Amino acid sequence: MSNKKKRSWAEPYKIKMVEPVKMTTREERQQAIDEAGYNTFLLRSEDVYIDLLTDSGTSAMSDRQWAGMMLGDEAYAGSRNFYHLEDAVRKYYGYKHIVPTHQGRAAEHIISQLMINEGDFIPGNMYFTTTKLHQELAGGTFVDVIIDEAHDPENEHPFKADIDLNKLEDLIKEKGADKIPYVSIATTVNMAGGQPISLGNLKEVRKLTQKYDIPIVHDMTRVAENAYLIQQREPGYENKSIQEIVLEICSLTDAATMSSKKDALVNIGGFLAVNDDELFDKARNMVVIYEGLHTYGGMAGRDMEALAIGISESVDYDHIRARVGQVIYLGEKLVEMGVPVVKPIGSHGVFLDAKKILPHLSQDQLPAQSLAAALYLDSGVRAMERGVVSAGRNPETGEHNYPKLELVRLTIPRRVYTQAHMDVVAESVEAVYQNAKEIKGLKFVYEPEYLRFFQSRFEVL
Ligand code: F0G
Q1: Ligand 1 mutation target, pool 129, 130, 217, 268, most atoms within 8 A of CB
Q2: Same domain, 138 and 241
Q3: Are residues 261 and 388 in the same domain?
Q4: Ligand 1 pocket mutation, candidates 52, 54, 226, 262, criterion most atoms within 8 A of CB
C-alpha cells in the first residue's frame, strides 16, 4: 500500500466580490413553491438559497472579463469586439465564419430554417429541448441515434454520448441521404446526464456521413467539458491539451451552434459558426431579420469582448479540471450516501434518478417534477426537472413523450459556489431521499404549447 497522503484540491481562484444569498424558513419556502405552481422555473431567485437550476448564464466572470467589458465598442456596425470574438472562434474552435446571436437557440433557429426542408429527418445523439423544437418548427423530425447505454442511468459506459453507427446507417438507408440535411452532434449530451462523446466515435461518424455526403452540425455548448473527459478517459489523448482536443472535435464537423452561456463563461450570448461560404452568406442575411446586424447579432460590444476572453479561459486546464472536479465531488458524495444518480457523473451537473427515488409514482405523476419541488422545500436548493415534463408531447398524437430517463438535474454554475455549498446540497438530497415515501405526485393545471417545462403549473395529487 502506498503511504502517500491524499492531497486536497481547491478552487483555482480567490473571491473578490460577494453576493449575499438569503436563507428562508420552511414556511416561506412552502408559500413560494405554492405560488410558483410547483415549478422551480417560476420561483423568484431571491427565494432560492443555492441555485442549481442551470449552468446557463449563471457563471461568475473573471476580472479579465470584467475589464474587457469596459472596452466595449458599442458601434452599430463593425465593432472592434466582434473582430476579437471572430479571432477567438477561429483560434480556439477552428471554424471559418461566425454569426453572433443573443443565445444558443437563436443560432439553432437560423441553421434549422436554412438547412431543413419539410419532411426531413435529423439524426442526433439524444436531443436537446430547444434544438429539437427548432428542427420540428422547420418541418423536420428528430431521430435519436445515440447508443442504447445512454438511456440506462446505471450503465457506466465512459462515452454515453456516442452515436450508434448501425442506427445511423439504417436511418440513412431507410429515408435516403437526400432526406437528411445534417447529423446533429452535441458535446456533451445534456439530457443523457452531461455525458461525453469520444473522438474515436466522432471520427467513425465523420467517415460514415462523408460516404453519404451528409454534413455534421455540432452543438458545442459544452465542448471544453467534453474535451476534458476525453483527455481523462480516451486512450491516446492523455497527453493532449484541452485546446488541442477542442480543435480536433470541431475539425470533424461542418458548422456549430453555441450557447456561450455555458462553457464560455458569459451571462449572455451565442453564435452560429460555419465553414461553408454560401451557407455563411445566407446565415448572415437571416440574422439581420431576427437578431441584429451580422457584427453584433443581439449582443452588446462589451458582451462580445467578455465572450472572446471567456472562450480563452474555458480551455485552460486548471479551470476545467476544477469545474468538472466540483461536479464529480458532489456526485461521488451522493453515491457514497446511496442516492441513485446517473453514472458516470456528468460534467455540468449531477442527475438524480427520480424513477428510482420515487418508485411509488408512475411517470404520469411526474416524479422528477415532484422531487425537484421537494428538494426546494427541504433546503431552498433549486434544481430542474429533466423527465416527462421536459420531453413534451408528440406533435402528431398529442400524447406525452415518455423518456426512459426521469431525472432531476443539480446543475453547477461555473466558479460560483464552493465545496462547502456542495456539502450542504448533498446533505439536503440525502434527507429528501430518506423521506422519499412521503413525496406525492403532481398533475398539470396549466400547460403552454411550446417548451412546457418552463411555464407549466402543477398541483399536488
Ligand atoms: N444546446 C444545449 C446542449 C443546451 O444545454 C442549451 C441550453 C441550448 C442548446 C440552448 O442554448 O439557452 O443559450 O438558447 N441549455 C440550458 C440548460 C437552458 O439549462 O441546460 P440557449
Answers
A1: 130
A2: yes
A3: no
A4: 262
Residue 70 included in any domain:
yes
Whether residues 194 and 284 share a domain: the answer is yes
Q: Do both 301 and 346 map to the same domain?
A: no
82 is catalytic: no
Query: Are 189 and 218 within 8 A, CB to CB?
Result: no
276 catalytically annotated: no
State in Å: Cα 8 to ligand 1 middle. 32
In a domain, 5, yes or no: no
Residue 13 lies in a domain: no
Task: Report DSSP state, residue 151.
Answer: G
Residue-wise pLDDT tens for the chain (461 aa)? Answer: 556 788 888 899 999 999 999 999 999 999 999 999 999 999 999 999 999 999 999 999 999 999 999 999 999 999 999 999 999 999 999 999 999 999 999 999 999 999 999 999 999 999 899 999 999 999 999 999 999 999 999 999 999 999 999 999 999 999 999 999 999 999 999 999 999 999 999 999 999 999 999 999 999 999 999 999 999 999 999 999 999 999 999 999 999 999 999 999 999 999 999 999 999 999 999 999 999 999 999 999 999 999 999 999 999 999 999 999 999 999 999 999 999 999 999 999 999 999 999 999 999 999 999 999 999 999 999 999 999 999 999 988 999 999 999 999 999 999 999 999 999 999 999 999 999 999 999 999 999 999 999 999 999 99
Determine the Cα–Cα distance for residues 180 and 117; give it in Å rounded to an integer: 9
CA of 364 to the centre of ligand 1 (A): 25
Q: Is 40 in the pocket of ligand 1 (CB under 6 A)?
A: no
Report the CATH number at residue 452: 3.90.1150.10
Per DSSP, the three-state class of 442 is strand
Could you tell me the pTM of the whole model? Answer: 0.96
Q: Which domain holds residue 420?
A: 26-55+317-460
Query: 119 with 223, same domain?
Result: yes
Whether residue 240 lies inside any domain: the answer is yes
| 131 pocket-lining for ligand 1 (C-beta < 6 Å) | yes
How many Å lie between the centroid of ligand 1 and the Cα of residue 7?
A: 35
* Amino acid at position 232, single letter: Q
Indicate whether 133 and 50 sit together in one domain: no
Query: Does one domain contain both 308 and 358?
Result: no
Question: Which ligand 1 atom sits nearest the alpha carbon of residue 186?
Answer: 3
* DSSP string for 363-408: GGG-HHHHHHHHHHHHHSEE-EEESHHHH-B-TTT-PBP--S--EE
CA distance from start to end of the chain: 55
CB 305 within 8 A of CB 81: yes
> Which three-class secondary structure state does DSSP give residue 13?
coil
| 259 Cβ closer than 6 Å to some ligand 1 atom | yes
Structurally, the chain folds into a number of domains equal to 2
